Amino acid sequence: MTARVGVVTFPGSLDDGDAARAVRIAGAEPVRLWHGDPELHGVDAVVLPGGFSYGDYLRCGAIARFAPVMETIVDAARGGLPVLGICNGFQILCEAHLLPGALTRNQHLHFRNRDQILRIESAGTAWTNAFQPGQEVLIPVKNGEGCYVADPATLDQLEAEGRVVARYLGGNPNGSQRDIAAITNSAGNVVGIMPHPEHAVEALTGPSLDGLGFFTSVLKHLVGAPA
Amino acid sequence: MSRVVVDVMLKPEILDPQGQAVANALPRLGVSDVASVRIGRRIEIEFTGEPDLDRAREIADKLLANPVIEDFTVRLVEADETVDAHQ
């Protein structure tokens, strides 16, 4: 049976179409979810896409966290539902306390848009098991508030538990502490990533096909393949 | 009507690049005696009935501020006073 992967659209989401497309290219069925509908419609996993939900008012992701669909997603994620938050989705996961820390204004204040090399640090998550630990991938980064911050104890804990999922290589685009580009929760089912794997799934539009691995990973995870 | 004013500031240890950018612009105004600038946010809340500081604190903690990176203060401003008089 084809896996069903939900992609949430908030007011101000931008990359929901690309995320749904990446899900389809990876071989799953994308299911569009609506912020105002608490129903998850039987999906096996959820992607929170990039964009500017609620206009980034107050703080990025702060208002999206209270959307009806998020209440269901937070409960389901605590029960093991795989959830990938990309860019604004990562911000929403932090605001919803599914992931520790916060994303703040890029230290240099510029919006940064470029193809970025990442090193996959943890291939043990639901969204990275198709990679090898230490593998380098090339996917676009595009953010204005992508600087990951957390207190030193939290950062040390993330490192010690292998929960830093990816780090920036070849230059940190936003000042993120310890070059962190992606992290996971302790169960490994929730991943937040600032760069955009959904923009690197086709030769025509992306710098590589490396982003596809995030979406094929969750399919492997769902059929119970060992990470 | 009485209002509750919530001030939200980045924690001291969190870099404030906006404030730095403003501080860096001050010499172009001829201002050279400012050591640092920090930028925060002020939110004014009007309740339908009596102002409720505890409720305002709850709102601030859950939504207006992100305790990971920000601190907040909550205070009451009387109807006949301007907020600026309390600065």
From TrEMBL, chain A:
Gene3D superfamilies: 3.40.50.880. GO terms for cellular component: cytoplasm. It catalyses: L-glutamine + H2O = L-glutamate + NH4(+); N(2)-formyl-N(1)-(5-phospho-beta-D-ribosyl)glycinamide + L-glutamine + ATP + H2O = 2-formamido-N(1)-(5-O-phospho-beta-D-ribosyl)acetamidine + L-glutamate + ADP + phosphate + H(+). GO terms for biological process: 'de novo' IMP biosynthetic process. Its main location: cytoplasm. InterPro entries: Class_I_gatase-like, PRibForGlyAmidine_synth_PurQ. It holds the Pfam family GATase_5. It is found in: Cytoplasm. It comes from the Bacteria. The keyword Oxidoreductase does not apply. Keywords: ATP-binding, Cytoplasm, Glutamine amidotransferase, Hydrolase, Ligase, Nucleotide-binding, Purine biosynthesis. The keyword ATP-binding applies. Pathway: Purine metabolism; IMP biosynthesis via de novo pathway; 5-amino-1-(5-phospho-D-ribosyl)imidazole from N(2)-formyl-N(1)-(5-phospho-D-ribosyl)glycinamide: step 1/2. GO terms for molecular function: ATP binding; glutaminase activity; phosphoribosylformylglycinamidine synthase activity. Its EC number is 6.3.5.3, 3.5.1.2. The active site is at C87 (nucleophile), H196, E198. Part of the FGAM synthase complex composed of 1 PurL, 1 PurQ and 2 PurS subunits. Part of the phosphoribosylformylglycinamidine synthase complex involved in the purines biosynthetic pathway. Catalyzes the ATP-dependent conversion of formylglycinamide ribonucleotide (FGAR) and glutamine to yield formylglycinamidine ribonucleotide (FGAM) and glutamate. The FGAM synthase complex is composed of three subunits. PurQ produces an ammonia molecule by converting glutamine to glutamate. PurL transfers the ammonia molecule to FGAR to form FGAM in an ATP-dependent manner. This is Phosphoribosylformylglycinamidine synthase subunit PurQ. It comes from Micromonospora sicca. The gene is purQ.
From TrEMBL, chain B:
Part of the phosphoribosylformylglycinamidine synthase complex involved in the purines biosynthetic pathway. Catalyzes the ATP-dependent conversion of formylglycinamide ribonucleotide (FGAR) and glutamine to yield formylglycinamidine ribonucleotide (FGAM) and glutamate. The FGAM synthase complex is composed of three subunits. PurQ produces an ammonia molecule by converting glutamine to glutamate. PurL transfers the ammonia molecule to FGAR to form FGAM in an ATP-dependent manner. It catalyses: N(2)-formyl-N(1)-(5-phospho-beta-D-ribosyl)glycinamide + L-glutamine + ATP + H2O = 2-formamido-N(1)-(5-O-phospho-beta-D-ribosyl)acetamidine + L-glutamate + ADP + phosphate + H(+). GO terms for molecular function: ATP binding; phosphoribosylformylglycinamidine synthase activity. GO terms for biological process: 'de novo' IMP biosynthetic process. InterPro entries: PurS, PurS-like_sf. PANTHER family: PHOSPHORIBOSYLFORMYLGLYCINAMIDINE SYNTHASE SUBUNIT PURS (PTHR34696:SF1). Belongs to the PurS family. GO terms for cellular component: cytoplasm. Its main location: cytoplasm. The lineage of its organism: Bacteria, Bacillati, Actinomycetota, Actinomycetes, Micromonosporales. Pathway: Purine metabolism; IMP biosynthesis via de novo pathway; 5-amino-1-(5-phospho-D-ribosyl)imidazole from N(2)-formyl-N(1)-(5-phospho-D-ribosyl)glycinamide: step 1/2. The gene is purS. This is Phosphoribosylformylglycinamidine synthase subunit PurS. Pfam families: PurS (PF02700). Keywords: ATP-binding, Cytoplasm, Ligase, Nucleotide-binding, Purine biosynthesis. Part of the FGAM synthase complex composed of 1 PurL, 1 PurQ and 2 PurS subunits. SUPFAM superfamilies: PurS-like.
